[in-house]
Amino acid sequence: MAANAWDFYNEFTEYSMDGTIDLDADTFKCALFLSTSNAATLSTSGKAALTNEHANANGYTTGGVTLTSITWNRSGGTTTFDSADAVWTAAGGSITARFAVIYDDTVTTPVADPLCCYSLLDNTPADVTATDGNNLTVQMSASGIFTVST
Amino acid sequence: MSTENFVKQRAIRRVEAIKYSAGRIKRKMTTAAGEKLKALQVRLDEYDVSLRALELEIRTGKPMRIGGTVITVPSGEVSLEGN
Description:
heterodimer, A: mainly beta, five-stranded antiparallel beta sheet, 1 helix, 5% helix, B: mainly alpha, rod-shaped
């Protein structure tokens, strides 16, 4: 099982550069979506436009989890955005997902919750599952979630 | 049986009884100690797993979690390109 690298939504290039998305101040969330979701459509704008999020059940709460320990650090011509892992504990049933999406939970205008990036969690492609009582961990790369480089 | 022999026989029986009891205690102690040892071994194994996770965490700077499903997502890249 290998996940695809984070891929970026079209609006992220605009909003991250015009200051709408503040990478070192806003609250970011990671949410899980089903195989039937449009999460892989990069032209999608705003979290509300994404379809088929994981049900609000089995240890998953709609909207996903807040990313903690966010860092936005520059080294030379490369700046890295990173956070602690996103973890869900399946309770009362399994958590099954195809996509993880990171979005900005702070911004309300010009679009609420602009989308940053998504990952296909198993590039077979297939779903990933954590059975009851187990963790589903979206582990961020040791190189960070993404880098911006010149 | 003379009084002397009776006392000797009683002493021998008592020694045998004590030996038997000592054997039982020893067997019990061995079993208990074995169980304790097994429990310690399990804990030691857990510590070993935790230690390896900690070492990995220190090396990568990333928190590691044992068990469940872990999906490592490779880093994305945004580049700035001049025309």
